[in-house]
Structures are given as structure tokens and as C-alpha cells.
Amino acid sequence: MTTTNKALQDWVAETAALTKPDHIHWCDGSEAEYRSLVELMLGRGDLLALNDKTYPNCYLHRSDPSDVARVEHLTFVCTPDRDEVGPNNNWMAPAEAHRKMAGLFEGCMRGRTLYVIPYCMGPVDSPYARCGVEITDSPYVVANMKLMTRMGKPALQRIEREGKFVRGLHSTGDLNPERRFIMHFPHELLIQSIGSGYGGNALLGKKCHALRIASWQARSEGWLAEHMLIVEIESPQGERHYLAAAFPSACGKTNLAMLIPPASQAGWKVRTIGDDIAWLHLDAEGRLRAINPESGYFGVVPGTNPKTNRNAFDMITHDTIFTNVAVTADNEPWWEDKDKQEPVTDWRGNPWKKGGAAAAHPNSRFTVAARQNPSYSPLADDPAGVPISAIIFGGRRRELAPLVYQARDWRHGVLIGASVASETTAAATGQVGVVRRDPMAMKPFCGYNFADYWGHWLGFAGKSDRLPQIFHVNWFRQDRNGKFMWPGFGDNLRVLRWIIDRCEGRAGARETPIGFLPQPGDIDLDGLDIDRQVLDSLLAVDAASWREELAGIASYFGEFGDRVPPALLEEHARVSKRLG
Ligand code: GTP
Ligand code: SPV
Ligand code: MN
Predict the structure, then answer these.
(1) Which residues are within 8 A (CB) of 283 and not within 5 positions of it... i.e. 6 or more apart?
(2) pTM of the model
(3) Which ligand is nearest to the CA of 478?
(4) In a shared domain, residues 365 and 393
(5) Is residue 262 part of a domain?
(6) How many domains does the chain have?
(7) Among this protein's residues, is 503 annotated catalytic?
(8) Which domain holds residue 126?
(9) How far is ligand 2, taken at its centre, from the CA of residue 111, in Å?
(10) Which of 329, 384, 430, 443 could form a disulfide with 438 if both were Cys (CB 3.0 to 4.6 A apart)?
(11) What tens digit of pLDDT does each residue of 178-197 get?
(12) Per the residue annotation, which of 27, 208, 251, 446 is the catalytic one?
């Protein structure tokens, strides 16, 4: 296979001349191609087959122990003007970055095959979808891209029709962290990544294209590229709402998108449209519509069990690639909080010792096609996307942030989004559990200056009077003993129902300086065993602590200097004043 697109043809030839692969393979995206890649990796030991009775077509991949998460300190955005990328990104001058990367890519594919992966982010027939081509020397990347994106022939045909595509060059290189870089050149619609085979560093359609590069395109074209799940909620009466929610990495997007209603919420139906990324466009009626650019999930494995997320638990029992989980004596994948079994080998492949470190890596992942999800919504394939009723921001905060609150209006909602803070998780290398500011859950993913990004968000207020309502949630409040105060998971539906009722003007609330909060009686607690005192503290607003929080937000905004939109600062001043 090859292509009629001259630019693509030339880029593949140039890349081959630089990287010197033994073979070039144009991916068609077929099942047969996937099978043959799996066979190749099984032969080399890059994949291990799991129990084929209980986990048919499931494989384990062990990544290099130094290569188990996104590397934010090695991720750069390269533009001529440093201020364009802002203090929220690492910056390098394009000429310097190109020189550095050309040196690293030189001859790096000797003895390997160069795979060309044409892909489409979003339904191939959607006007909101965008195409890209990833070149990689990793069959693991090709197999993951097959499960996660619409890749192969139909994508290439769209590229040949449109002529426009994002280029992503990836090589696992020698996996030396000293020679690991993830570079973005937004003005050239180009990504270059070397030295990692892991997730967001290597599957370039995901965070690199669909968020960092797409956020630039979205800004200039008037839409939003966001780190959001998209979920469909249907009431027992058949009323449907679509919600989009932005939580930082490993803070509950996949779980909320696949939520199973508790027994007491009979008749409610929840379906998944997306679990990680949303592209949002205003339609002709002024509604914000969302598509999920992906067609598969790269989800956190630990904690997945029939009680927390039965949909995911069932979904990953066949045709799944596991990365960095443990293995039992029966050759089944195992992870913390799965069940009462004990593994025999840990994620590195070493004998597992009771009482030692976690058996599965805390950022171990499953890769699976979305259609395997029992709660899959066919609307995920609708080229028009779905109209969003509410946008929900959230974070992992053991203190302060209440269970849920609602913004007064869009502008206040943008302030709430810009003020998101969350405890860091194992999804990125570095310290875990420290609170950091993570505006709109986009700290690692917004490809340009946050100050300009907040301005872009604020600008929507002038474009439509049918924008979604904006909320903030926190499932992660802890008591003095470190125990989660809210049951979470399926019971989060109770909070989503209050959110929907607020959108419909049906639910009660009390006004506080930080926004509207439910009174305990405004949330349906039927069948839930929760202490009244616990609930009261989940819904409390402590003015003194919030004054401190607002001061912290002000000093964070200060890092962005006079580029911060005045409207955001005015909104901040308004909330501060209400807090006294
Ligand atoms: P990324 O894929 O990294 O973007 O993560 P995500 O936002 O999709 O997070 P995910 O749903 O995979 O959840 C991450 C971790 O949080 C898992 O270990 C979950 O079990 C846990 N978690 C998710 N929802 C809840 C909840 O409502 N309450 C509590 N206590 N834990 C939760
Ligand atoms: C995240 O870290 O937000 C993820 C996993 O969804 S990765 O694909 O590695 O970015
Ligand atoms: Mn994510």
C-alpha cells in the first residue's frame, strides 16, 4: 500500500532516509494485520498470552521499568515565541528542538520496521473529526492505535480527500530516559516523540494530537479540545442528558463514564460516549456539541472490580492488552483491589512477595476497543456528536472542595475551571499525592498559554445563550482516618441527578459565596447509608479556608502576568468579596 497524497509520500520517504528502517509497512487497520502484529510480539516476548479460557485474546505487555507513565518534564511545545506556550508548558525554540530530535532519530530504526498509521480522531464521516498519521517503529503502538482509534484505510482515504493531517513521528529509541523527549510543533502540525513506548508519550493520536495540537486548532477555529469524559444519562421517563466532565488523570473519568446505577436508582440508564477526551463545537442552534475523538480506552486497571466498575471489569475479560499488571498462578492478570487471589509475579515479572510493593504498577493500564463496553452508546459514532447540558470540573481533594457546587453563570464557571487543583497521581512520573493547580484538568495537555486559553473559554459567553451550566465535584474527601467520606462510583449518579435537575430548573439549592450547593434534602439519598454529619461536612463551605484558597488562586494567576483576562480577575475579586 502507499498513497496518492504527495506530502505524506514525501514525509514517509524523508523519515525512512533519516531513521533507516529495514522495512516499511503501511497499516490498513485490518483484523488480519492486528493478528499478525500480535503473533510477532508474542514471538519476541513483547507480549505474553494470558489464560485463553478466562481471558481470551488478552495479552500482557511489560514496559521498561523506567517507562511507566507520561513524562511531563520531558514534554515540550516548540514555537518561535516563548510566551505563546506560557508558564504551563516547557518550551524549546523550534530550530534547537529540530536539531536535537534529528540527531536522536538518525538511524534509530535500523533492524526495525517503520509502520505508517493513518488515523482519524472522531467518526470518519464527522465534520468535527481530524486526521493524523503516526510513524512508529513499535508494533505495540500500532496494536494500541488499532484498539483506540479509527485507523487504516478509511482514515487514509479521508486524508487523501482533505489533504490535511497532523504528522507524528515516534520511535522507542533505546528507552534511555536521558534520550527521551516528547516534542510538539503546533505551527507545523508536527509531533516528535522518542525514547518511550508508553501511553500518552507514544500513542500520538491521544494526548499529543487530540489535546496539545488540537487545543491550538480549536482556539483558532473557535472550538474546544478538552480532557473530558462524555456520558449519557437517561431517566426512567426517557429524558436524556449528556454531560461532559474534566477531572485530572486518574481522578475518575473512566469510572464515571461507565457508571452503574445503584439498586435504589431503578430505571436510570447510563451510557458511555467517551472516557478521556471531548471535542466541543457550537452548533447552528447555539448548543455545545461533543464528539469523542477516540474509539477505545486506555484505562487505569488498579481498583477495577465488580463493585466499583462492573462494566470495565467485564469489558477487559477478552480482546484486551494489559500493560504492567501482575499475573496469578492461573496466568490471569491481577491488580490491587481486583479480588482475594494472590499473584505469583509482579508487574516487572519478578516473584511477588506478600507485604511488599504493589503487584500491579499503580499506573497499569488496559487497552480495549470501546465497542466492548457493556454501556457503550452508539451515539459515540454519531458524526454530529451530542448536545451537552452540563460541564463538570473536578479534582482529587481530601479537604476543602465540597461534594458538588454550581457556578452562577458561564464566567463564574470558567473561574471554577481555571481554579481546579488536585492531588497528583501515578499517571505521570513524579511525586504522588501533592495538591497542584490543574486548570480544566489540562495542566499537562493545553498546548498554549493558559492565560490565552482562559480567554478563549470566556469568549464563548458572547457566542451563545444556550451554553451548558458549569459545576464542580469532588468524590475524594477524606475523614481524619483517611477514609473516603462519599461512597463514590455508582452513587455518584445521585450527584449527577442533582446537576441535571439544576439544568432543568427543578432542584433546590442554597447560595453560598463559592456558588450554589444542594441542601442535604436536594440530593436523592434513598437507599444510601450515610451519616447526616458526614453529609453536612461534604456540603459545607468553610469561609476561612476558602479565603486561603482564593489567595492561592490569585498568586497562581499572577504567574501568567498581564496576559490573564481581566474578566477572570474581576470574577475572582467578586468571589473574594463575597467571602469577606
Ligand atoms: P486517566 O485515564 O488517567 O485520565 O484517569 P481517569 O480520570 O479516567 O480515572 P479512573 O476512572 O481510571 O479512576 C482512577 C482511580 O480512581 C481508580 O483507581 C478508581 O478506582 C478511582 N476512582 C474512580 N472514581 C472514584 C470514586 O467515585 N470514588 C473513589 N473513592 N475512587 C474513585
Ligand atoms: C492520562 O494520563 O490522562 C491518561 C493516560 O489518560 S495517558 O494516555 O498516558 O495520557
Ligand atoms: Mn486522561
Answers:
(1) 289, 384, 387
(2) 0.98
(3) 1
(4) no
(5) no
(6) 3
(7) no
(8) 6-46+74-223
(9) 30
(10) 443
(11) 999 999 999 999 999 999 99
(12) 251
Task: Return the residue whose CA atom lies nearest to atom 7 of ligand 2.
Answer: 200
- Asked if the model's pLDDT at residue 337 lies above 70, the reply is yes
Which CATH number does the domain housing residue 562 bear? 3.90.228.20
Q: What is the mean pLDDT of the chain?
A: 97
Distance CA 183, CA 181 (A): 6
Same domain (yes/no): 346, 394: no
342-366 pLDDT per residue, tens: 999 999 999 999 998 999 999 999 9
Which of 298, 364, 367 to mutate to test ligand 2, by most ligand atoms within 8 A of the CB atom?
298
Side chain identity, residue 233: I
**Are residues 347 and 441 part of one domain?**
no
232 near 386, Cβ under 8 Å? yes
CATH number of domain containing 151: 3.40.449.10
For residue 539, pLDDT beyond 80: yes
Confidence of residue 201 (pLDDT cuts 50, 70, 90): very high
Whether 311 and 210 map to the same domain: the answer is no
Condensed to tens digits (0 to 9), the pLDDT of residues 392-426 reads 999 999 999 999 999 999 999 999 999 999 999 99
Q: Cell for 413?
A: 464557571
The answer to the question of residue 280 being in a domain is no
Q: Which bound ligand lies closest to the C-alpha atom of 428?
A: 2
177 and 300 inside one domain: no
Residues with CB under 5 A from ligand 3 (ion): 249, 276
Task: Tell whether 336 and 464 lie within a shared domain.
Answer: no
For ligand 1, pick from 300, 397, 425, 486 the residue to mutate: most ligand atoms within 8 Å of CB. 300
Report if residue 10 sits inside a domain. yes
- The ligand minimizing its distance to the Cα of 250 is 1
* Residue located nearest, by CA, to atom 2 of ligand 1: 299
Report the alpha-carbon distance of residue 180 to residue 193 in Å, rounded. Answer: 8
Q: What is the best residue among 75, 207, 254, 365 to mutate for testing ligand 2's pocket, by most ligand atoms within 8 Å of CB?
A: 207
Task: Supply the DSSP string of 120-149, one letter for each residue.
Answer: EES-TT-TT-EEEEEEES-HHHHHHHHHHS
Ligand 3 center from residue 246 Cα (angstroms): 9
At a CB cut-off of 8 Å and minimum separation 6, what does 151 contact? Answer: 27, 29, 117, 118, 119, 120, 145
